[in-house]
Design brief:
Elements (H helix, E strand, L loop, with lengths): L1 H27 L21 H12 L2 E5 L4 E6 L1 H10 L6 E2 L3 H7 L9 H17 L7 H17 L9 H16 L9 H17 L2 H8 L10 H25 L9 H11 L10 H32 L1 H14 L15 H14 L8 E2 L4 E3 L2 E3 L4 E5 H5 L42 H18 E4 L13 E2 L3 E2 L6 E4 L1
Parallel strand pairs: 2-7
Antiparallel strand pairs: 1-2, 3-4, 4-7, 5-6, 8-11, 9-10
């Protein structure tokens, strides 16, 4: 009896403490719905469609509001003006990476995507310099993508026009580009180790986008005590880390510091140059996480976009026909597409932009965090506060994109049919945390899709009107539904 009373008092005190802390924090932060103790506002958010919940809440609380996902507050930015103001006008103050506990437990603050501070800046600077200026050996990145596009076409020919699920084939192409940059070699599309790598990357994307993972990130303690897909995520990340470290050992045996062959060689040379410094960015662990980041960002996001692109082109055959007409006029059938062609193909350029706008691949981006206390729109946001930026609200702004729920390449064309840029085009986010692989992704989307459409007609086994383009999950990324497609040689 006495023990029961004592436990009741302890729980009551903890509850009161939680309420007092939330109340104290809320007085300084932007307005928002009243959170419940411990669970916060989690019951007011649809974990299967977070963007819709944020849109509904913004109608009540405005473009800047506070949401408690668990016991900690997050400031939500909704709409182009406020997202631009934070990420671009106050880029440094909003350049931190917010916490995703389930991922932090695995990556431990290393790599490019989930790191912070000096380690993030140095690792990002090195990776960008290597990707942009190294030239990846004696061939440009564009030549590598063109070669992979031709390999992709040959693989698609093997389907003989029969209905197929393009998921794995479209994952292989961008993954091979990343492999050639990091390891200086590509894989055969039927190589079992390669297919295992693709499968792991697909699994990770689906797990990270699931409602369960949103729960794990908001209540991280459950990952220590309950089974679930977070355990599979840890296993997959561990596999990728060991896979990358094995490649490092192979490179060490044949390293020529005067003739770096790929990203690994460049990293090993940097490690040798910095061996007397205690820099965290020059460690094997940081390299392994950085490489897995490049794999994830360079493979899964691009392959998902390619898959979604083909689904939309099947759904809108009139758009596909106009793109193929432009390909015939500008490129023809006797040479491979190149990046210079893009400036002469305004309709194709508009279609690619509209695909990325419409699919809204990363609806809330990755969480940001404030690197210092900042007064923002008359609110005082403490250092280290998690910041959620709604990219959906930018890409679906109805003033910039009339009828944003409709797929319409006209959103990026002027009255003369010329390509029209938009300041609201934020599929790669913006500011200091903009996707490090943006240039490569844009190149791959153009070269892969134009090469496919140059060589094949696309046919759907079902009526295009019956194709559903609604994502099956829309957490970290928007994953398209599975579909069948026929590649009919031109």
């Amino acid at each position: 009896m006495v023990l029961g009373v004592f436990l009741g008092l302890v729980l009551s005190c903890l509850l009161l403490l939680s309420l007092w802390r939330q109340s104290s924090q809320r007085r300084k932060l932007p307005p928002g719905p009243t959170p419940l103790p411990i669970i916060g506002n989690i019951l007011q958010v649809d974990l299967k469609n977070i963007s819709k919940s944020l849109r509904d809440l913004s109608k009540v609380y405005g473009p800047v509001f506070t949401l408690y996902l668990g016991s900690k507050p997050a400031v939500v930015l909704h709409g182009y003006e406020v997202v631009k103001e934070a990420l671009i006008d106050h880029g440094e103050e909003f350049s931190g990476r917010g916490s995703l506990p389930a991922v932090d437990k695995i990556k431990k603050g290393l790599g490019i995507i989930f790191s912070n501070g000096k380690n993030w800046k140095e690792t990002r600077r090195f990776s960008l310099m290597t990707l942009r200026n190294f030239g990846m050996g004696k061939r440009s990145i564009e030549e590598r993508v063109q070669e992979e596009a031709r390999c992709l076409v040959e693989e698609l020919r093997k389907t003989n026009g029969a209905p197929c699920d393009p998921t794995f084939i479209l994952g292989c192409a961008p993954c091979n580009v990343i492999c050639s940059i990091i390891f200086q070699n590509r894989f055969n599309y039927k190589d079992q180790d390669f297919l295992n790598l693709i499968n792991i990357l697909n699994e990770n994307a689906n797990i990270l986008s699931s409602p369960w993972m949103q729960v794990c990130n908001n209540f991280p303690v459950i990952t220590d005590y309950l089974p679930g897909s977070h355990a599979k995520l840890l296993k997959n990340f561990t596999f990728l880390k060991h896979y990358c470290l094995e490649k490092v050992k192979e490179h060490q045996e044949s390293l020529d510091i005067n003739n770096p062959r790929d990203f690994i060689d460049c990293f090993l040379i940097k490690m040798e140059q910095e061996k007397h410094n205690s820099n965290v960015e020059c460690t094997y662990d940081n390299f392994a996480v950085t490489t897995s980041d490049l794999f994830a960002a360079g493979t899964e996001t691009t392959s998902t976009t390619l898959r979604y692109s083909l689904l939309l082109l099947l759904k809108h055959p009139e758009v596909t026909a106009k793109v193929q007409e432009e390909i015939d006029h500008v490129i023809g059938r006797n040479r491979s597409p190149c990046m210079q062609d893009r400036t002469h193909m305004p309709y194709t350029d508009a279609v690619l932009h509209e695909i990325q706008r419409y699919i809204d691949l990363v609806p809330t981006s990755l969480p940001h965090a404030t690197t210092s206390e900042i007064k923002f729109r008359n609110y005082l946001i403490p250092k280290g506060t998690t910041v959620i930026t709604s990219l959906t609200s930018v890409l679906n702004d109805d003033k910039e994109f009339p009828n944003p729920e409709r797929f319409d390449p006209g959103h990026f064309l002027d009255e003369n049919g010329k390509f029209k840029k938009s300041d609201y085009f934020f599929p790669f986010s913006a500011g200091k945390r903009i996707c490090v692989g943006e240039g490569l992704a844009r190149m791959e989307l153009f070269l892969f899709l134009t090469t496919i459409l140059q060589n094949f007609h696309l046919e759907s086994p079902v009526d295009p009107k019956d194709l559903d383009t609604t994502p099956v999950v829309s957490g970290l990324i928007a994953v398209p539904p599975k579909f069948q497609i026929c590649f009919i040689p031109v």
